[in-house]
Design a protein that fits this description.
Helices cover 62% and strands 0% of the residues. It is an all-alpha fold and 161 residues long. The protein has a single domain, classed as Up-down Bundle (AhpD-like), CATH 1.20.1290. Helix 5 crosses helix 7. The radius of gyration is 15 Å and the shape is globular. InterPro entries: AhpD-like (IPR029032), AhpD_core (IPR004675), CMD-like (IPR003779). GO terms for molecular function: peroxiredoxin activity.
């Protein structure tokens, strides 16, 4: 399977990608725990059916020390006992923030209250930005049908520079 279009091989898309990666670097420096970020990135990618991003974020999370049990249970986090209350709040925000077209009010007040209970202002800002960024990345990859399976952790590090 090949992508419909090579985003990194196109001058305009590559320029955009470089700036997109720069935005992601801001989140690398955020106070939001990296494992939480990876869980959110993975869950939103699962919902959006972005195989490329599911591949990337499951491998990045594993390389960072995330356990196979937790990675395998992200899609069923509500029924799993391996996530903290803070991670559950972040995963709920990821789902509701990804499925905004499915609910009149978007993110529920209940989910927002849980997020505010577990995260400070800087962490909330990072969490909202992580959800927005991954949804944009998912859409780009799904539109061009970037195939999954060949990602290796760190392979885009040079693009972030």
């Amino acid at each position: 399977m090949n992508a419909r279009f090579d985003l990194l091989g196109n001058e305009i898309a590559a320029k955009f990608g470089k700036r997109f990666f720069a935005a992601a670097q801001v989140l690398d420096q955020a106070a939001l725990p990296k494992p939480t970020q990876e869980l959110v990135l993975l869950r939103a990618s699962q919902i959006n059916g972005c195989g490329f991003c599911v591949d990337m974020h499951s491998k990045d999370a594993a390389a960072a020390g995330e356990t196979p049990v937790r990675l395998n249970l992200v899609a069923a986090w509500r029924e799993a006992t391996v996530f903290t209350d803070a991670e559950r709040a972040a995963l709920a925000l990821a789902e509701e923030g990804t499925r905004i077209a499915d609910a009149h009010d978007g993110v529920s007040d209940e989910t927002w209250a849980l997020v505010r209970k577990h995260y400070d202002d800087d962490q909330v800002a990072a969490l909202v930005c992580v959800v927005a960024l991954i949804n944009a990345a998912n859409r780009m990859n799904v539109i061009v049908r970037n195939p999954a399976g060949s990602y290796e952790p760190g392979m885009f590090a040079a693009a972030k520079e």
